[in-house]
Amino acid sequence: MRIAPAIELSPDQRAALELWVRGRSLPARVVERARMVLRAAAGEQDKAIAQDLGVTPKKVPRWRKRYLTLGLAGLEKDASRSGRKPEIDARLIQRVVEMTTRHKPPHATHWSTRSMATAVGISEASVRRIWHTHGLKPHLPQTVKVSRDPKFAEKLADIVGLYLNPPEHALVLSLDEKSQIQALDRTQPGLPLKRAHGQTRTHDYKRNGTTTLFAALHAANGEVFGLCHEKCKYGRERKL
User: Fold this and answer.
1) Do 172 and 219 touch, CB atoms closer than 8 A?
2) How many CB atoms lie within 10 A of CB 64?
3) Who has greater pLDDT, 55 or 85?
4) Which range (85-94, 98-107, 133-142, 224-233) has the least confidence?
5) Of 4, 35, 110, 198, whose CB count within 10 A is highest?
6) pLDDT tens per residue across span 204-235
7) How far apart are CA 74 and CA 62, in angstroms?
8) pLDDT by residue (tens digit) across 13-35?
């Protein structure tokens, strides 16, 4: 026959437990645990204590052992738990990510939560959480232009290497241009932004010609330089 380990209380410990039992501001679970320990210290068996207090047979030995290990502090807080076991394992999550990024669904341009859930065998909410965690938005496609230059990778490495490790006492700038920018002006003044109404402007406009914007980024400190040029009818450029 299994005998539960005995509990011996000092006068201070007994007084504290009796105070907890009479306490009205303490949580009910703490009061219940104090009663278990007091009766266990009186020599009662776990089965009899559980039956008298109306708790499960496993609850009394658990808190008896907890008190013997941690004392009064062990009765005030619940033991830490490992948490809920994930319903979707890492392999299935990886499969969702791989299908989203590398494959297309049949008869569709991109995956939806419903089509992915059907293909993988999980709920739409789970698909939505996986996409959100990995920053995937298959419903928002973007355009890209891949260079046809066979030495594109080598040239890219040279440029990036120049930015990361520029020559000593050298000024490295990243230049770009945007040409044929239309200089438009609205025919009527717009209405300002106010409460419950956004800023408005008239749909008709007048053209004031075109301009070309040249921009340079100082790679070391992030400073941006901008310069606009007006296009003349003879092909020459004039500084505005």
Assistant:
1) yes
2) 22
3) 55
4) 224-233
5) 35
6) 888 888 888 889 988 778 889 888 877 644 34
7) 11
8) 889 998 988 888 888 888 899 89
Which tokens is 58 given? 């496993």
Separation of CA 65 from chain center: 40
Report the C-alpha gap between 118 and 120 in whole angstroms.
6
Burial 185-219 (b: 16+ CB within 10 A, else e): eeeeeeeeeeeeeeeeeeeeeeeeeebbeeebbee
* Residues 155, 156, 160, 161, Cα dihedral to 10°: -40
Q: Would you tell me the crossing angle of helices 90-102 and 113-120 to the nearest 10 degrees?
A: 130
**Using CA atoms, how far apart are residues 52 and 45, in angstroms rounded to an integer?**
11
User: Strand, coil or helix: what is 168?
Assistant: coil
Dist. CA 140–CA 111, nearest whole Å: 11
Runs of H (alpha helix) within the chain: 11-22, 28-41, 46-53, 59-70, 73-76, 90-102, 113-120, 124-134, 152-164
**In angstroms, what CA-CA distances link 71 with 15, 64, 126?**
14, 10, 43
Q: How many CB atoms lie within 10 A of CB 36?
A: 27
Rounded Cα distance between 78 and 63, Å, is 10
Backbone φ and ψ of 175, nearest 5°: -105, 150
CA dihedral 75, 76, 81, 84 (to 10 degrees): 120
The residues, ordered by sequence, that sit 6+ positions from 171 with a Cβ below 8 Å of its Cβ are 218
Strand-pair partners of 186: 205
